[in-house]
Design goal:
With 217 residues, the chain is mainly beta. 8% of the residues lie in helices and 49% in strands.
Length: 217
């Protein structure tokens, strides 16, 4: 019975790797064909859970819940203390356009994060048009050991959260994520490398370079 099952599923063990539909798997589990999960989704090395790949328009789907960085907002404490940072928010998506028609033009930053109990403070900040000294996104990548590692920073000085778009997502069981898509505008925008410290800061109003201390706290 066991032998018949193995033959039917085409499962093979090769150098401590398991293959389904392949005789020589190169990873701990390799599947030749379509994988289907009907309950639970897929959990990644950084602990985030993906339960769907569906997303359309401005809809924030559960597919966004894969950590790509950390968001720090001066004066507002987030839920995460990790990678040497305290009071940070998880970042699941981030995008910003930069163009050069007649001088550098930085567009607004759009970021998807999960704020939880800090959502009220964010809403108040948006409603009041509060100017925030610094907003920083620490971009993270997964290293060879499967751990997140900060490699670059995006900094914004004299920033304002112009738009806050709320979305509640069910993850699994009794788990829910309170996702916010934030649109952030700023007077100063800059990038800084984590290793080496090379930095670029741009003042949008006068269309010129600025000191990095204007972009990063």
């Amino acid at each position: 019975m066991v032998l018949t099952l193995l033959i039917t599923l085409c499962i093979s063990v090769y150098s401590q790797n398991i293959g389904i539909g392949t005789a020589s798997p190169t990873e701990k589990l390799e599947v030749s064909g379509i994988m289907y999960t009907n309950d639970g989704g897929v959990r990644f090395p950084d602990g985030t859970l993906q339960t769907t790949a569906a997303q359309s328009g401005n809809e924030v789907a559960a597919s966004t819940t894969k950590l790509v960085g950390l968001l720090r907002i001066n004066g507002i404490s987030g839920p995460l203390d990790t990678l040497g940072l305290t009071g940070a928010f998880p970042v699941y998506q981030a995008s910003q356009k930069m163009s050069q028609p007649q001088g550098i033009d930085f567009g607004d930053l759009e970021v998807v994060t999960e704020l939880g109990t800090s959502a009220v403070t964010i809403m108040q900040t948006v409603a009041r048009g509060t100017v925030i000294d610094f907003i920083t996104i620490d971009l993270a990548e997964i290293n060879a050991m499967g751990n997140p590692l900060i490699y670059q920073k995006l900094g914004m000085g004299n920033a304002t959260i112009a738009i806050s778009e709320f979305n509640l997502e069910h993850k699994i069981g009794n788990e829910f994520s309170h996702l916010l898509r934030l649109t952030i505008t700023a007077e100063f925008v800059g990038w800084q490398e984590q290793i080496g410290g090379n930095c670029f800061c741009w003042e949008k109003q006068f269309n010129t370079t600025a000191l990095c201390s204007e972009c990063f706290d």
